[in-house]
Amino acid sequence: GEDSEKGGDSKEAGLNGCVGDEQDQNVPRPPLPLFLAGISVCNGYDGRYAILTPDHAKAYNRLITLKLKQILSKHKGTFESHPGVSVERALSSTCLQDFDRHLSCPLLGYSSPEEYYVESSCLPKMKNVRQPLLLVNATDDPLLNETLLSIPQALVKENKHLMWVGNECGGHLGFSEGNLFARRWSWLDRMASSYIAIILSLYADTRAREAH
């Protein structure tokens, strides 16, 4: 994989500048924070664009819809009495937007698929990230196009706590290694393990300095 050059010094800032430096020194710190860091893999960032853009990942949209309908058909009795839900229409849906309109939105209290996708997207919330967050994408991900892949590259310029890694291959949640037979551990496994080890090491060093 290759680290994006477009993040400037976001890698160092994300891993070094965020662990302890941004905390208010006058506020007592807990023994261990809830989150030291995070990893987001194959995120689409903007659900509204990803699902509602005409012809974007159309085949995958239909395939996911088909899989959801298969699951729903096995459990339709659970949802038939829920106000606003139309199991029959959801089962006849040909795209995610229609499926969500008839099932997900009434279940979750959204007025429309558009509102649901906007609220479900992480993009508006990324500016609030204050711990190191590694964003990992494959540039050959069939569910993402250039517009969606440009989002993390812009985010790392706006928030020093973010770092983006764009691998040339990996597909969607793949990142397998090997030729004919995939290896037991993927590139993502190795990369994530290294990242976590660095975070834990930096945190231990920070705590040790504070103890003195």
Summed up, what is this model?
The protein has 212 residues and is an alpha/beta fold. The chain has helices at residues 10-17, 47-52, 58-79, 87-91, 96-108, 113-120, 146-158, 187-211, and strands at 2-3, 38-41, 133-138, 162-167.
Structural description of this entry:
It is a single chain. This protein has eight helices and four strands, in the order βαβαααααβαβα. It has helices at 10-17, 47-52, 58-79, 87-91, 96-108, 113-120, 146-158, 187-211, and strands spanning 2-3, 38-41, 133-138, 162-167. Strands 1-4-3-2 form a four-stranded mixed sheet.
Given as residue ranges, the uncertain stretches (5+ residues, pLDDT < 50) are 1-24
Q: How many DSSP H or I helices? A: 8
Overall body shape = globular
The Cα radius of gyration reads 21 Å
Taken in chain order, the helices and strands follow as EHEHHHHHEHEH
**What share of the residues does DSSP label as strand, in percent?**
5-15%
- Residue share in helices? 40-55%
The major beta sheet can be summarized as: 4 strands, mixed
User: Helix/strand/pairing class, anyone?
Assistant: alpha/beta
Termini separation: 38 Å
Strand tally is: 4
Largest sheet, spatial ordering of strands = 1-4-3-2
Determine the mean pLDDT.
85
